Amino acid sequence: MSKIHVQATVNGDSVEFLADPRETLLDCLRDHLDLTGAKEGCGTGDCGACSVMLNGRLVSSCLVLGVEAEGAEISTIEGMADGNELHPLQRKFIEHAALQCGFCTPGFLVAAKALLEKNPDPSESEIRFWLAGNLCRCTGYDKIVRAVQDAAAEMRGAA
Amino acid sequence: MAKDEISGKEFKWIGTTPDRPDGLDKVTGRARYGADFNLPNMLYAAVVRSPHAHARIVKIDASKALALKGVKAVVTRADLPTGLTGEDLYLQENTLAGEKALYDGHAVAAVAATSQLLAHDAAQLIEVEYEVLPHVTDVDKAMAKDAPVILPGCADHSVPEGSAPNVARMIEFGRGDLAAGYAEADLVREGHYTTEATHQGYIEPHAAVGQMGSDGKGEMWVCTQGQWYIRKMCSAVLGTDPAQLRVTPSEIGGGFGGKTTIFMEPLPLALSKKAGGRPVKLVMSRAEVLRATGPTASASMDVKMGMKRDGTITGAEVNFRMQGGPFPGASPVGEALSCAFACYDIANLNHVGWEVLANRPKCAAYRAPGSPMAAYAVESLVDELCRELDLDPIEVRLKNGVKEGVRASYGPKFKKIGLAETLEAAKAHPNYAAPLGPNQGRGVASGFWFNHGGETSVSLAVSEDGTAQVSVGTPDIGGSRASIALMAAETLGIAYENVRVNIVETGALGVNEPTHGSRATFASGKAMWEAAQGAIKEMCKRAAQKWDIDPEAVTWKDGAAWPAGDNAGKFEPLSIKEIAGEMGKTGGPISGHHESTPSGAGPSFGTHVVDVEVDPETGRVTVLRYLVTQDAGRAIHPQYVEGQYQGGAAQGIGWALNEGYIYGEDGRLQNTVFLDYRVPVASDLPMIDTVIVEVPNPGHPFGVRGVGETGITPPLPAIANAIHAATGARLRALPMNPPAVLAAIKAKG
Question: What are B17-45's pLDDT values in tens digits?
Fold first, then answer.
């Protein structure tokens, strides 16, 4: 099958790659752009480890075809920190020990950031339901929810 | 501040909660997990798997696949050496089926090609002709005399003559006089309980890049709990020399026991060898993980217990049947028996266990293997007895609970243990007194895990600037870099930030067992402490040399060498930085090593209290409140100890309420994606409250007990007990999903 040329913006950088029409956006990010922060935990959109922002929308990149990214603005975990300045969510995840193995962490961070952009003051329930598309098998979610609450409070204070 | 009970000294680092050393890598996406690793000129692999639960393999024809441009190698069982026996043979059989495919998903062939898509295309072109055989997936049906025979001659010497053909092992042990025990009781009850197989559900699928030349020298990068196990097992399967295989562990995206063994890992090596030594990458899909890695056993269990009116348990027995897949040695029934009554001091006991083969994947360890099923049966029945005799479940456990000096149900005498302390902590916690509303109920259960020492080798090297590097062989699965760095900082008297803990490849240390048995912080920590003593001794020697006094007259304190007393002479202390700065001139590099199989792992006990609400219309169970109290011995990094408790509880809640393998009549696994194999999500759970009980373990320099495993054990019965309290319905089968709970409520009338 012949490959298709795709041009997009990822974390503010202009990128191009050749995608097989069968490849997912996740495959393209990982295999063609060397952005391995997004993970494949299921390939069926159930675990959220591959979460990225596509044109301002939170998506499971394993459910998007690479060729659909033509002209798109994509942001991934690799673009979350501002240089060496971590996003408050990244800092709070470390401070609260909200990760054990860390495999699901990039997906949680991307999803949590999308939540706080929509809702800067979410309740515990709102956090839990928003993050219900991200599976974590290590933490039992307690410390993740607390880290998101704490980051949200800090970001509200800073705003 | 935490205090060392032995020396009376206050700790500087132990018990604090600094950021984990690998935190930055893990929140920025930089940490490299199994599938994140690539090599130049690398090939990609795919696996052909049996769609049948039990089938004779008549013919494999790979010619169409091999005719595709870019397909570089196909391997089948015919490419692997013959003549293996015992567990090595079973590992090889499980890697690639031989004469028969033994379960749905069993690997039959593997192919390597120049792209992932091409490898998948090629796999579809490999034609396998099967002769389908009758199968059995249910544990009780597998124990029938007329069940399809999975592995002829599987029974070992323990199996009584005339037993069913799939019985591989029988275990029996006990003590006292059961009949007399029951005669003393005011109430004797028995129950039958079943649990379905569950999967560890680590989010990272298995992944490896392997390279092996025709000379049998190879390398592998792999997500694993134990790089030396990968080396040993792959070498056995491939008939190569373990010393010639160098295995580097990646970061690991969860394991819970499921990554302590091999499944597909020999395949990239075998393919590489056949493809001229080009590296080969193989990453499993989620469906492959669920179908063909190592879930836990399904169990069918009978329990009988006698209790006096005052709550004294006078006698108890279990008869457990557990299938471990198609090979002997994989079922955790032995551990289940040993855990069954480990929380109780009972004079009259009997345990009978049956290991049964079935057409299911080869079981692997899953967090306290065997213990959750045993607890589900035993702790449910204890609850039934308590309710019938109107006794408080915590008081009954305190009355019968094991303590120091008691002989365990499984043999040895307990040293210092903390079961009673966890029960007292649960009783004192506000959750135990929280008011309950309609359709709500509270359940209590305790749990146990042995904890493990295991082969351990650690190296500690002092750097030129007085910082230290610790090399350990136990992959960091949940914060062990942090706990080992804290202990190293405490031991050497330097800052936590000045320690770097590296998880090293097999070429860098002697053999290490995996991160399993809750052993990383215990065993690697203990060996680090011993290694540090070696380095400290050497640093004292260098100071003595400089001061021209006897090395015995030098002592180590606060990161410096000091004269041991006035008699030693008056010298300014020499800091680790000063000693290290001169080490090249004073005798060379300073380091310490320690190799051992440490004993004294210190058993772990925990008690859980859960409140649930049951919707009488739908049978849906909502967990309202959850409390874990568990003995950590000594919490080195309390946040990560809490994390283990919370994570164990969450997995147990999933096992109790939702998770379970579903096999169709055709013997195929029906729930092979996370949508259908549904693990708990954030909105299913409340905050999980924890109390870290600390009864220091005398077998560890800082009192550590492993904390990883016990937490998964009590949730199964605690939730069953809470559902009973809420509804009056007793659920004796897992999972207790809405249809099951609704049926139980209706059956009660």
Answer: 999 999 999 999 999 999 999 999 999 99
Q: What angle do CA B45, B49, B50 make, to 5 degrees?
A: 165
Residue B409 in contact with residue B423, Cβ under 8 Å?
Answer: no
Q: For chain B, positions 400-459, list CB contacts with chain A under 8 A.
A: none
Interface test with A, best of B681, B685, B689, B707 (most A CBs within 10 A): B681
Distance CA B233, CA B643 (A): 31
- B674 and B691 part of one domain: yes
Are residues B254 and A144, on separate chains, in Cβ contact within 8 Å? no
With H, G, I as helix, E, B as strand and everything else as coil, classify residue B474: coil
Identify whether B676 is part of a domain. Answer: yes
Distance (Å, whole) CA B714 – CA B653 = 9
| Same-domain pairing of B524 and B622 | no
Before B717, cis peptide (omega within 30)? no
**Domain, as residue range, for B462:** 453-596
| A84: Cβ contacts below 8 Å, ≥ 6 apart | none
Domains of chain A, start order: 4-78 (3.10.20.30), 88-158 (1.10.150.120)
Interface of B with A in 30-69 (CB under 8 A): 30-33, 35-36
> With a cut of 0.90, is the ipTM above it?
yes
What DSSP designation does B148 have?
P
Residue B383 located in a structural domain: no
Indicate whether B643 belongs to any domain: yes
Please list every residue in chain A whose beta carbon sits closer than 8 Å to the beta carbon of residue B295. none
d(CA A70, CA B444): 56
| Interval A50-95: pLDDT, tens | 999 999 999 999 999 999 999 999 999 999 999 999 999 999 999 9
Q: What string of H, E and C letters represents the secondary structure of B69-89?
A: CCEEEEEEHHHCCCCCCHHHH
**Distance between the two ends of chain B, CA-based, in angstroms?**
56
Whether residue B489 sits in one domain with residue B615: no
Print burial letters for B232-266: b (CB count within 10 Å at least 16), e (below 16). Answer: bbbbbbbebebeebbbbbbbbbbbbbbbbbbbbbb
Q: How many domains does chain B have?
A: 2
* Alpha-carbon span B379 to B396, nearest angstrom: 11
Interface A-B, measured as beta-carbon pairs within 8 A, has a size of 189
Which CATH number fits the domain that encloses residue B744? Answer: 3.30.365.10
Query: Which of B23, B200, B283 has its CB closest to that of A94?
Result: B23
CA distance A157 to chain B (A): 22
Statement to judge: residues B548 and B421 lie in one domain: no
In a domain, B15, yes or no: no
Structure confidence by residue, pLDDT tens digits, A114-143: 999 999 999 999 999 999 999 999 999 999
